[in-house]
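Risk mitigation, structural track. In case the binding assays with nicotinamide-adenine-dinucleotide fail to produce interpretable data, a predicted complex structure has been prepared as a fallback.
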Amino acid sequence: MTARILDGKVLSAQIKDEVTARVEALKAKGVIPGLAVILVGNNPASEIYVRNKGKGCEETGMLSRTVRLDEATTQEELEGQIEALNRDPEIHGILVQLPLPRHLDENAALAKILPEKDVDGFHLINAGHLMTGTEGVVPCTPKGALYMLRSTGEDLSGKEAVVIGRSNIVGKPMAMLLLQQNCTVTVCHSRTKDLAEHTRRADILVSAVGKAGFVTKDMVKPGAIVIDVGINRVDGKVCGDVDFESVSETAGWITPVPGGVGKMTIAMLLSNTVDAAERTLGK
Ligand code: NAD
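Fallback model:
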C-alpha cells in the first residue's frame, strides 16, 4: 500500500482563503483583525516562526505587530508588555513566542494574557474549556492536526487513536480533541513500556516527540492515518518524527514534513485571531 498524502500546503491554503474572506467582512464593519507576537531574545528557530506568522497576517490582510524584547528582559517588563497589549483595541490576538529564556516564568506570563486574546489557547481558562468540551480557544497545532484528520473523510468515531507525547501544547490537547471525536485515545510518553505494542493498534497515530526517524514502519498498523507533528533538523534539513519513506508503504494516509502540520499551525493561528476579532463585534 502507498499512503495518500495529507498536504498541509493545500489544506492550509483553504483555511487562509476562508480567513481572508472573513477579514474582508470584518474590515467592512470597521475592524481590522490584529495579531501581536512577543519575541524575547533571538532564538533562530523562533525568529523563523515569527517571520512566518507575520507573513500569514500580511497574506490574509490582518494587522501584524512584533514586540521584540531583549534577552535580559525581566518578568515584570514582559508582563507589562502583555498587559499593554491586553488593553490595546487594535490587537485581538496575543502570542508569546516560546520557549522563553530560562530566567522567565512561562506559565506566569501566559496567565497574564486575556483568555479572549489568547490565540495560542494556552491560558488555563482555555485549557479548561478544552478539557470540559466547552467553547474556548483551541491550541493551533492540535487543531490543525484534527483538520487534517477530518479532511480524510473517514469516520473518526470509535477509532483507536494513539498520541505519542504528552506536552501541554501538543500531546494533551490533541488527546482531548480526539476524545471529542469519540476516538478511543491512548497517550504514550517517555515512560511508556513497549511503545510499539500501543502504536500498532492505532487507526490514528499522532507523533509529537521531537526525534527524527522515531516512528518506523513496524510500529504502524497497515492503513493507519499517521500525523507527524515533529519538527527536527538533521544535517540542516527539516524532518518529522516519522520515517516517511518506509511508513508511507504501510500507512493509509500520512502528513509530510515540511509541508504538513507546521503549515496548519499558522493557518489555525490566523483563524483563531479572526475568531477573536469577530467576538469583539457584539461587544
Ligand atoms: P516536548 O519536548 O514538550 O514533548 C515531547 C514528548 O515526547 C514528551 O511528552 C515525552 O514524554 C515524549 N517522548 C520523548 N521521548 C519519548 C520516547 N522515547 N517514547 C515516547 N515518548 C517520548 O515537545 P512538544 O513541544 O510537544 O513538541 C514535540 C515535537 O513537535 C517537536 O519536534 C516540536 O518541534 C514539534 N512541534 C511542531 C509544531 C508544528 O507546528 N508542526 C508545533 C509544536 C511543536
